[in-house]
Write a structure and sequence with these properties.
The structure is a homodimer of 143-residue chains.
Chain A lengths: L3 H25 L7 H13 L2 E2 H8 L3 H13 L3 E6 L2 E9 L1 H22 L4 H18 L2
Antiparallel strand pairs in A: 1-3, 2-3
Helix pairs in contact in A: 2-5, 3-4
Chain A binds a DNA duplex (23 and 23 nucleotides) through α2, α4 and β3.
Chain lengths: 143, 143
DNA sequence: TATTGTTATACTCTATAACTATA
DNA sequence: TATAGTTATAGAGTATAACAATA
């Protein structure tokens, strides 16, 4: 057990399961709702407060160029504000507007409604497995 | 235990962990490699053989229009072939070309190299948790 | 020189809606 | 009428590369 072949199979299973459930999340998204990338930024700002562009792009593992474009969209929609860091003129300090804060909270709540309905059908043991797995996946994702 | 609040937290944790590890997969992808959607189609065809467009779009939970475009890209690249179903002239039968078969196998192997390296560092118990969790996530994804 | 951020360009992936062809 | 598939259009999300401003 725990041999080469078995570990390899687990990698395949896990990779496939994650891709499928992620696509399922995406397909559950209603028209007009924010996309994954935009929402992720709002939630990071909601949890951690003011962040720079580099911090945001590191958090989501995208390039600074990609994140700059996501941020521009959010600013256009009035959900975030940018201001220069007076202590370091290269940095932009990014924070939620009141409307962005409202959307972040609402989106996060709505986002989990579907998931929670399904988790409620699992046993306590199964939920415990998923809770542990979430922590392990975080470890993998964060290196 | 298993109360309303705890289940809700688990939904949030799991949702976030899945989004993060999925983005990590994407960021590990080398330039020139196939994207997630295209690769998913190749792997479905590799596992299940000839499929119709509707079957493929159902598998990945995308619209027929989206899948048609993905298929067109793959056909242009010479990785899949389309032919009319003689028994039902509306249907297109989609299958891998030899080159597509080669790419599907190679991509799948390469895709898991990084994941397997990380899984090898986990304990047998932790891998067991992830294996169980993969099955549970499949259940959620597949409804 | 190094870091921070923006912009231009291009590609993948997706949806919706209008369409054709077949059943 | 219903189903299978395509195409046009639009938008999100991403990368790379060239760039400007600041440290």
């Amino acid at each position: 057990m725990g041999g080469e072949q078995e570990v390899s199979e687990l990698g395949a299973e896990l990779r496939t399961a994650i891709a499928r459930i992620y696509r399922r999340f995406r397909s559950e998204r209603a028209a007009g709702e924010l996309g994954e990338a935009a929402l992720s930024v709002l939630i990071s700002l909601h949890k951690q407060g003011t962040l720079t562009l580099t911090e945001l792009s590191d958090l989501d593992r995208v390039t600074a160029g990609s994140m700059s474009q996501t941020i521009t969209r959010l600013a256009t929609d009035g959900l975030i504000q940018r201001r220069r860091d007076t202590a370091d003129g290269r940095r932009m300090l990014i924070e939620l507007t009141p409307e962005g804060e409202r959307i972040a909270i609402a989106a996060r709540a709505h986002q989990h409604t579907w998931m929670n309905a399904r988790l409620a059908e699992f046993s306590d043991d199964e939920r415990a497995v998923l809770r542990e797995a979430a922590a392990l996946m975080r470890r993998v994702a964060d290196d």
